[in-house]
Amino acid sequence: MIRTKQLLKLANRRNFIQISYFCSKSSNSSSDYDIIISGGGLVGTTLACSLAKSERLCDKSILLLEGAPVFKRTNIEGYSNRVSALSPGTIDLMKAINAWDHISATRFKAVGHMQIWDAASDAHISFRGDPNKPLAYIVENDLVLDAVYNQLKDVKNVKILNNSRVEKVNLVPKPSVSLKSGETYSADLLIGADGYNSLVRKAIGGSDISLSYEQMGVVATIELSEANDNITAWQRFIPTGPVALLPLNESLSSLVWTTTKDHAKKLLQMDATEFIDALNEAFYKEYKKDRLVTGAMDTFKSIFGNNMGEGPQFPPKIVGVVDKSRAAFPLGFSHNSTYVMQGAAIVGDAAHRIHPMAGQGVNLGFGDVKCLTEVLSEASYRGADLGDVTHLVQYEKERLLQNLPIMFGVHGLQRLYNTDNPLVVALRSIGLKLTHGTPQIKDLFMSRAMS
Questions:
Q1: Residue 386 DSSP symbol
Q2: pLDDT tens digits along 286-327
């Protein structure tokens, strides 16, 4: 028995040494890799880091093709105008790859309260987080990237090619990409993190549902009239679309204003005073109520009384906009019916794209990262080919179950709040009030959003 134990200890020690050797080897210098990730950004870069840090994948050579130049965080003193509301599930991912320490040591803002209300009826819903469990964490996108790249510096099995423009994708006989600069790279598995115009998605095929909302999202960093704890995320639905404020610190918030393309152009061209006035109007203007809507809400109140809560609160007045922080980007919806095929998979916007009103877009992408890392880690442990579709479909099944309800729910909300039909306004307002007054339904919404 003693001899057996000694042999087991020796075998375990040898296995440890072997694993340590493989996990510390240099990245592949040839054109053939285990995994190629086409597209960087928040999702692709985080995926590369997540795969490389997996104990079961640390011996795999990974090539990250990033179309942008070498990343360097700028404007460190001022806030970036592009932020994300990271869910607790995403924070768990950041902690798993050791990126959260860098973010938390720099800056972030925890959201403890959220209010959404309808300007056409004043129906509203609010959510409150636990003091030890915020609803979300507002973090600048470039800070997230900075934290992930900081981890990639010490990873030996990931090679990053910046300024790489993919010109062609082939999946047979073996996954490969050809760059506009002439190089060709192949791998056992090609992962597309290359955005909503994904070449990898087109190579995979499937039914792609894609549409433009014919709207723009106007972003800016704005100054509040008074410093306070500023832990509330505000969102008001007005006739042109939702306008939202996300807290950054005690006196600054990040704006995301969905509006028509023409109006977005006007907002970008306004001087600071005009823009501030327009923004305060968006949050404070009393819009004319339709008689049908007013009657429906009065009837609702006569039945339920004040059991559904008081009217909405209002955010602090806006007194300034940070210079050169205004920008705009197009909004749309897309979803591919399949995420995988033999030798290939897609993640993030390459697979799905939604309206930013619920702040779930990037969180869905990070959910893809977590799931795909787990699936590939298990496949590697079993000695399977990383590109084998028999285990890639497990990633597809799990993510479709998670993504589809959120995606089509958000799309439905966009359509529901993109009309001024009195009957629709009355029905959506009653639904909002009922949801606000029913803890079980609110808890269901929050469990989905925080996963």
A1: T
A2: 988 888 888 877 787 777 766 555 668 889 999 999 999 999
> In which residue are the tokens 């942008």 written?
68
Cα distances (angstroms) measured from residue 251 to each of 86, 175, 223: 20, 50, 6
Task: Give alpha helix (H) positions in 97-229.
Answer: 100-106, 141-152, 199-204
pLDDT for the residue numbered 357 = 84
Angle at 236 between CA 367 and CA 429, to 5 degrees: 95
User: Which residue's structure tokens are 């990245």?
Assistant: 27
Q: What is the DSSP letter of 80?
A: P
Mean model confidence pLDDT for the chain: 88
Cis omega (within 30 of 0) on the bond before 173?
Answer: yes
The C-alpha torsion from 365 through 370 and 374 to 380, rounded to 10°, is: 70
CA distances from 254 to 228, 269, 318, 346, 394 (A): 15, 19, 11, 30, 37
Dihedral angle of Cα 417, 423, 429, 431, to the nearest 10 degrees: -100
| C-beta contacts of 4-7 below 8 A and 24+ residues apart | none
Burial-class residue 16 by CB neighbours within 10 Å (0-12, 13-18, 19+).
exposed
What is the rounded distance in angstroms from the CA atom of residue 286 to the CA atom of residue 307? 24
In whole angstroms, what is the distance from residue 281 CA to residue 318 CA?
10
pLDDT higher than 90, residue 197: yes
* Three-state DSSP state, 301: helix
pLDDT at 275: 98
Reading the block at residue 290, the tokens are 């339709």
Residue 224 clears pLDDT 80, i.e. is over it: yes
pTM score, whole prediction: 0.89
CB contact at 8 A, 193 and 37: yes
Spatial separation of the C-alpha atoms in residues 407 and 448, rounded to whole Å: 11
- Kindly give the pairing relationship between strand 158-161 and strand 62-65: parallel
φ and ψ of 23, to 5 deg: -75, -15
What is the rounded CA–CA span in Å between residue 329 and residue 335? 19
